[in-house]
């Protein structure tokens, strides 16, 4: 059987015309969408691959645990600060409660500082407090007990805005939670007796 050889020049001319028509159509689409500030994805296959990759990234992110930075809560050595705190605790004794709540009296921050501050100073101890934001933008209350030797203890508490009444504005929620955490942390750090009724 005789082989029929196609008319290559004619076929090539037809394909060239078809290609040019498609190319012109694509160019017009580009011009139209680019004028609207949009990007045209020419290939459906490319779009599907991109969409699949985005879904994969979202799925992987959902499975990964939230990584929080960790910090040491004490200095490398604590011998001197521990001895000083022990001596201070023996002198602190009882603290009167002046705060009032629905269920009775409680020891306020002012009550504790009035008794403890002079004694801590005598043993070269100091308590400092900072309200910062962590790597996730959350509020963190940091209380540090430091000694003249350079040794220290630290306590951290995460403060979320939902830890206070929802009827308060955002800044008041943080202040409300900070006030309570500070009192509890101070009492715990110095191992004071729990006289609170609230």
Number of H/I helices: 5
The proportion of residues in beta strands is 15-25%
Number of domains: 2
Distance between the first and last residues' Cα: 105 Å
Radius of gyration: 35 Å
Mean pLDDT: 78
Shape: elongated
Order of strands in the sheet with most strands: 3-4-5
- Return residue spans where pLDDT drops below 50 for at least 5 consecutive residues: 1-8
Reported for the largest beta sheet, the result is: 3 strands, antiparallel
**Roughly how much helix do the residues carry, as a percent range?**
40-55%
Secondary structure category: alpha+beta
* Number of strand segments: 5
- Secondary-structure element pattern, one letter each: HHHEEHEEEH
Structural description of this entry:
- With 198 residues, the protein is an alpha+beta fold.
- Residues 1-8 have low confidence and may be disordered.
- The longest helix is centred in the first third of the chain and has 28 residues, at 8-35.
- It folds into 2 domains: 6-39; 79-189, no CATH class.
- Strands 3-4-5 form a 3-stranded antiparallel beta sheet. The protein has a two-stranded antiparallel ribbon with strand order 1-2.
- The chain has helices spanning 8-35, 44-63, 79-92, 109-122, 170-189, and strands at residues 99-101, 104-106, 125-133, 139-147, 152-159.
- The protein has 5 helices and 5 strands, in the order αααββαβββα.
- A hairpin with a 2-residue loop joins strand 1 (99-101) and strand 2 (104-106).
- Helix 3 (79-92) crosses helix 4 (109-122).
């Amino acid at each position: 059987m005789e082989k029929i050889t196609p008319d290559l020049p004619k076929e090539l001319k037809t394909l060239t015309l078809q290609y040019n028509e498609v190319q012109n159509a694509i160019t017009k689409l580009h011009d139209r969408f680019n004028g609207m500030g949009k990007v045209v994805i020419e290939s459906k296959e490319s779009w599907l691959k991109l969409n699949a990759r985005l879904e994969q990234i979202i799925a992987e992110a959902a499975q990964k645990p939230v990584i929080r930075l960790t910090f040491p809560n004490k200095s490398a050595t604590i011998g001197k600060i521990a001895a000083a705190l022990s001596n201070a605790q023996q002198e602190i004794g009882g603290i009167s409660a002046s705060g009032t709540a629905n269920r009775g009296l409680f020891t306020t921050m002012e009550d504790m500082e009035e008794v403890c501050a002079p004694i801590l100073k005598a043993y070269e101890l100091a308590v400092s407090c900072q309200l910062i934001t962590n790597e996730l933008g959350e509020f963190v209350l940091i209380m540090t007990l430091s000694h003249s030797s350079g040794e220290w203890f630290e306590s951290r508490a995460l403060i979320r805005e939902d830890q206070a009444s929802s009827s308060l504005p955002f800044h008041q929620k943080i202040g409300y939670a900070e006030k309570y955490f500070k009192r509890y942390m101070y009492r715990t750090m110095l191992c004071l007796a729990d006289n609170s009724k609230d």
